[in-house]
Specification:
There is one protein chain. By secondary structure, the chain is mainly beta. The protein is elongated, with a radius of gyration of 43 Å. The protein is built from four helices and 65 strands.
Length: 819
């Protein structure tokens, strides 16, 4: 090799089957990975005295006997550095070398002595396995771990010095080694580690002071007869397969202080119950795969434990202090019927109860602090028909209830803090009919992709939802009602959100929404769509079907969204309704004119004019108005439902109100501060803007059947008026600022009543013949025409009296002060 070289590169002479001798340059200190790998005839190598770094597999299957400097590094990426080197007689390690890797010196059976410094924290698996000539081994203080088979088949190594720092010894690390074990009551120890049971016995007593029971501790021939195991208070760990097949062991007490239990540690034991101490942080798979086990008491505060139990478990109880249910803890425990949770649990891990097909009963602590249900936590719990969500739960993660085929109801506790429902959380649950999301008091909620796809929900309330992701309610074929308040914080609705919900006949986008994805209402029964002023984007094919007839656009500028706002793929939509004065701007853009048959302008409450002096509202002017569904005529706003017969009756010269409003609808409009979208989508009736001052509203009309005339001034309680025969009712009011007045019909008596004559009626309707606004006379006494008859006494609430009372009375149609 070149004299200037200080290192032998990786793969330099890999698999050189004829190579017998190598002369390295003086001063060479490094041999790279697999440099002489499988050079099986290589027996002589010169100038190795300064080499202190040897790569993985560097001398694998060579036959060299060389002097190396104390090694500072041995590579571990591939094969053992000297694996199967049968002529190597001595090796030394520099103080500071951190580890000896897997099979580094395996089958080097000419090695006779080892001195391993305490800087080596870990001696790897099979590191010296098969070193049958090894007689003396000294391991310095500081080494912590001997991995499996580390000294297996070192059949002459009878002189061992072991450090007190050893905390773990892998399975069969000293198999077929004449190690000088300490033996007590049939148990072999290496310092404070229980290594094996050296004889057949029915009782195993692990001495006090022992910290570890190693992997494969058991005596395979005698473990089946063991009936009792006593564990010390000092124990920290039980190794994998330590007591596997202890078929006669029916009980065991695990001490507080225990930290880990290896996989299959008690697999096959006769245990019927187990209590897990609070100090346990790790339990291996199948650790308690005991076919007789039916009860688990779990006290581990925060542990990792994937599938440690058998399918026979029927009940698990979580103790106070437990913070998290580990991922896959009870996975596929098909016999589990009941789970009892403590108040301290904050999280249920991923797949914690997945596949628990018999789980029917879940008991929450009254003051449960549960916040997170992780993904697939209750997946395939096929017997669970109701789930009560504790109040503090904030997140239900992806697929949390996937394939819970019997689930019918999800019940949120009042004041719930739920703010996120993950992807496909309740998807394809054909029996799920209800979830009361309106119980959530969280400031916002996010509904993930396909969260309720193909469920059997019939109605859903979304009061505080901020984002509805793609396909969230897709194919909910029984969904009839979606309640999203006008003032909802909803900002974004993803693609196909309500795609193929054929039972859905009405839908309201809230004021403030910014983005509506494509095909959101595709294949629904929604016939009228209102797009709020706040929108910045609407995806293509929003609702391309023959049912949609009217689309209302509430924003006035068609350029408000740079990419266009509506991209319809259907030509079946008939009418585009745009704000008053914007028809030309909208209709000049192809994105609108090419997708609608007609474009008409509509009014809105915000366009009404203030009545500031004595006025008569000319209802006869409505005779020539084509569309009163949302129109401003002479400064007054009209919202008439023509399908219910609302509109102007030319024969009687009156306005007919058949449609009614209820208290809840009016409350929602009030909550939204009476904005345009709340009115356009929810209101039927008349709206006027009245000026400040003392005035009187005079209505001439008739109420027939159950319907009554309602008048509501601003935020005040609505006044109910009953006029069984045609007559007038005058209502004085005083306003300190311009006030909106609502005039509408209602069936239920939800307001203060004013009753006139009563007669029977064949229909339920309200007719309005005249509306007047009168300014008070200078003496402050209002002129109120109560009825076409005279000689009657009324109070200011319009109630008829038999005699006058102190204060203001209405006598013979005049306001009179009685002292």
């Amino acid at each position: 090799m070149p004299k200037v070289s200080k290192q032998v590169g990786e793969y330099m002479c890999t698999n050189c089957q004829v190579l017998e001798r190598v002369v390295l340059p003086e001063g060479c200190n490094q041999v790279g990975n697999r440099a002489f790998w499988r050079c099986e005839k290589l027996t002589d190598i010169v100038n190795t005295e300064k080499i202190d770094s040897i790569g993985a597999g560097a001398f694998y299957y060579t036959q060299i006997d060389a002097q190396f400097a104390p090694l500072k590094y041995i590579g571990k990426e591939y094969y053992g550095a000297f694996d199967n080197n049968t002529r190597l007689k001595a090796i030394s390690f520099a103080d500071g070398i951190p580890f000896i890797p897997k099979r580094a010196f395996a089958d080097c059976y000419s090695l006779e002595e080892l001195a391993i410094p305490g800087s080596v924290e870990s001696i790897g698996e099979s590191a010296f396995e098969g070193c049958s000539g090894l007689k003396k081994v000294s391991i310095g203080e500081g080494t912590k771990t001997l991995e499996a088979y580390a000294f297996k088949n070192c059949s002459q190594a009878s002189d061992f010095t072991m450090p007190s720092t050893i905390v773990a010894i892998g399975q069969k690390a000293f198999d077929n080694v004449p190690f000088p074990f300490e033996v007590e009551d049939g148990v072999s120890y290496i310092r404070n580690i229980a290594y094996s049971v050296s004889k057949e016995t029915t009782n195993i007593v692990i001495r006090e002071g022992t910290t570890i029971i190693v992997d494969y501790f058991r005596n395979e021939r005698g473990i089946s007869s063991v009936t009792s195991v006593s564990l010390p208070s000092t124990l920290k760990g039980i190794g994998s397969y330590a007591f596997t097949s202890a078929r006669s062991l029916s009980s065991i007490t695990l001490p507080e202080g225990l930290e880990y239990i290896g996989e299959h540690a008690f697999d096959g034991a006769k245990l019927s119950s187990i209590t897990i101490p609070s100090t346990v942080t790790s339990i291996g798979e199948g650790a308690f795969s005991c076919e007789n086990m039916v009860r688990v008491n779990w006290n581990a505060v925060d542990a990792i434990a994937k599938g440690p139990f058998s399918s026979s478990i029927e009940k698990i109880t979580f103790g106070e202090g437990v913070k998290r249910v580990p991922d896959e803890l009870m996975s596929n425990c098909s016999g589990l019927v009941r789970a009892i949770f403590s108040s301290t649990i904050e999280e249920i891990g991923a797949g914690a109860f997945s596949g628990c097909e018999s789980l029917k009963r879940i008991d929450w602590a009254e003051n449960s602090n549960l916040k997170i249900i992780d993904n697939y936590a209750f997946g395939q719990c096929k017997s669970l028909n109701e789930f009560i969500l504790p109040k503090e739960v904030e997140i239900i993660d992806t697929l949390a209830f996937c394939k819970c085929d019997a689930l019918e109801r999800v019940i949120l506790s009042e004041g719930s803090q739920l703010r996120e429902i993950g992807q496909s959380c309740f998807a394809d649950l054909n029996l799920l009919t209800s979830i009361n999301l309106e119980a959530s008091s969280a400031p916002y909620m996010i509904i993930g992709e396909e969260a309720f796809r193909n469920s059997s929900l019939t109605s859903i309330s979304l009061p505080n939802v901020r984002i509805i992701h793609d396909n969230a309610f897709r194919a909910c074929k029984k969904l009839e009602v979606v309640n999203i308040p006008i003032n909802s914080p909803l900002e974004e609705m993803g693609d196909y959100a309500f795609y193929y919900c054929p039972s859905l006949s009405s839908f309201t986008f809230p004021d403030g929404i910014k983005k509506i994805g494509k095909c959101v209402l595709y294949d629904t029964s929604v016939s009228t769509i209102v797009l709020p002023e706040s929108l910045e984007f609407v995806g293509e094919s929003l609702a391309p079907n023959d049912i949609v007839k009217d689309v209302y656009v509430l924003f006035r500028n068609p350029e408000i969204a740079p990419n266009g706002v509506v991209h319809w793929s259907s030509h079946n939509m008939k009418t585009l309704h745009v704000p008053y004065g914007t028809k030309d701007a909208f209709w000049s853009m192809r994105v609108y004119s090419s997708n609608f048959n007609d474009c008409v302008e509509f009014g809105a409450p915000s366009y009404t004019e203030t009545v500031d002096e004595t006025s008569n509202i000319n209802l006869s002017s409505l005779a020539n108005v084509k569309d009163l569904s949302s129109a401003v005529v002479d400064g007054v706003y009209y919202a008439m439902d023509s399908q219910k017969g609302d509109g102007y009756d030319k024969a009687e010269n009156c306005l007919v109100l058949n449609s009614t409003m209820n208290e809840a609808q009016m409350d929602e409009i009030q909550t939204a501060n009476g904005n345009d979208i709340s009115i356009v989508t929810h209101y039927n009736g008349i709206i006027m803007q009245l000026a400040t001052g003392n005035r009187t509203l005079v209505l001439e009309g008739q109420t027939i059947g159950a319907n009554k005339l309602m008048v509501k001034f601003g935020n005040e309680k609505a006044i109910e008026i009953d006029l069984p025969t045609r007559g007038t009712m005058a209502i004085p009011y005083q306003a300190d600022e311009d006030t909106r007045v609502y005039i509408y019909a209602a069936t239920a008596k939800t307001a203060e009543s004013r009753t006139g004559y009563r007669t029977s009626a064949a229909a339920n309707t309200v007719k309005l013949y005249d509306i007047k606004i009168k300014t008070d006379e200078s003496d402050g006494i209002n002129i109120l025409t109560v009825s076409k008859d005279s000689g009657f006494i009324y109070n200011l609430q319009g109630q008829r009296m038999t005699e006058t009372k102190k204060g203001f009375n209405i006598i013979n149609s005049k306001k009179v002060l009685v002292r």
